[in-house]
Design goal:
The complex is a heterodimer of chains A (207) and B (147). Chain A is built from seven helices and four strands, in the order αααββββαααα. Chain A is globular. Chain A has 207 residues and is mainly alpha-helical. Chain B has two domains: 74 residues, Roll (Ubiquitin-like (UB roll)), CATH 3.10.20.30; 65 residues, [2Fe-2S]-binding domain (DNA polymerase, domain 1, Orthogonal Bundle).
Chain lengths: 207, 147
Amino acid sequence: MRALLLLLTASCASGKTAAVDEKPPPPQDSRALRDVASFTSIGDRSERSRALFLEASRVFLHPRCANCHPSGDVPAQGIDMHRHEPPVVRGENDRGVPGMRCTSCHQDHNLELAKVPGALVWHLAPIEMAWAGKSPHVICEQMKDPARNRHRTLAEIVEHNAHDKLVAWGWNPGHGREPAPGTQEQLGRIVQAWVETGAECPPEVAR
Amino acid sequence: MIRLNVNGQAHELDADPEMPLLWALRDLLGLTGTKYGCGQALCGACTVHLDGEAVRSCVTPLSRAADRKVTTIEGLANTALQDAWCDLAVPQCGFCQAGQLVTAAALLAEVPQPSDEQIDRSMAGNLCRCGTYSRIRAAIKRAAGAK
């Protein structure tokens, strides 16, 4: 009797989820990104747009990306997002301070022996583009706001996510570091689809 | 062959382009003033200037320094800074001091009259196990002409 009750409860629960959310099932691998095509099952265009951004935010909020989009003046490092060592601060141009620039250590490629990560034009994201600790909703609004996105158009935001070389480092972090979910190509397609569906932002509570 | 300009002197080195600059300075050129500390850019003991910018030579491949101006503690031209270091007897064991001086020189080149906060921010990545930090700050202020 108890087993039957559990079975009925599980059936009801799964049926309810499918009816309300209309979302495709999450991928098996937490490090994968859903393909854009899987979002077509969401009939409402705005709802689809919000779901697409939520998926993209899994990349934005991954430590590999958020570590250098800090909410303060000090970057983080590691998958646990601990404070950067040695101690560094963003400085006036997000590239460190005299005597201690980002490029004092970071170079244009990963250093495997010294384990120092690197990519072209290594620097922090400006403070107005802080992501660490923010919700997908806040990041979305920020990304669309010309005052906080360096006056980028939506097309330029797609291009930045899809092809920027520093962004690309997120999937090539070197030295056994966990990469951001999916691939940069997939992220580019998701952001493109988000723009094409109206660039809607998910609600504050959405994660 | 990799061409280097170190302290104003031209060199041609037959070395692996991936060799850390620190190795080349110490082992190939005999410039042992620059110290090996951690080997991971964490302590600052190996700091040198590359075209005036302070870099950690232990993680800087020779290829990055090719055809650029390298300045080590042996070639540091900021005598006011070195005088202040001596006047205030800044070093204790001395191991980190070459890196401290080179970083301080990079700071003063860009910020001739640094505040305490600017000094602390720029020097924070140069560790001193003897804890000479307050004397380092005082010496930088003295070299900057501040009282």
